[in-house]
Design goal:
The chain is of the alpha+beta class. A five-stranded antiparallel β-sheet has the order 1-5-4-3-2. It is globular, with a radius of gyration of 15 Å.
């Protein structure tokens, strides 16, 4: 499976706040919080679902991996989505290991596994 997703009873806003705090502990920052519903409604389009896309980054890790392989920049910053779905809040991300496999650079597997583990730990705190 290309993604990791957890389900929570918290609201989308609560989940985003908790996630930002958990990410900070892992030295990741939220670079951008894109509120899809709000943006579409501001463009005159109806969109009922709460849906946020967070772009997150650990600067030290980004520098390290980009030094090894410039193609990884196609996947940066990491994306985490937080959205409502049938009364539940879902928090998910594409797995860094799945994305790194697309480069064909086996030397990056351990790096991707570490980042994935750290991000999963953050997502698991939302449950």
């Amino acid at each position: 499976m290309f993604h990791y997703t957890v389900e929570s009873n918290k609201s989308v806003d609560e989940a985003v706040t908790l996630l930002a705090s958990a990410l900070k502990e892992e030295k990741f920052g939220v670079l951008w919080d894109f509120d899809v519903k709000d943006t579409l409604e501001n463009k005159g389009l109806e969109f009922e679902q709460e849906y946020r896309i967070l772009e997150v980054c650990n600067p030290q890790a980004a520098k390290e991996v980009l030094t090894q392989n410039h193609m990884v920049g196609y996947f940066l910053p990491c994306k985490i989505v937080v959205y409502s779905d049938e009364g539940k809040t879902k928090v998910g991300m594409p797995k860094p290991t799945a994305l790194i496999n697309l480069t064909g650079d086996d030397s990056l597997k351990a790096f991707a596994e570490d980042i994935e583990s750290r991000l999963i730990s953050c997502l698991d705190q939302i449950v």
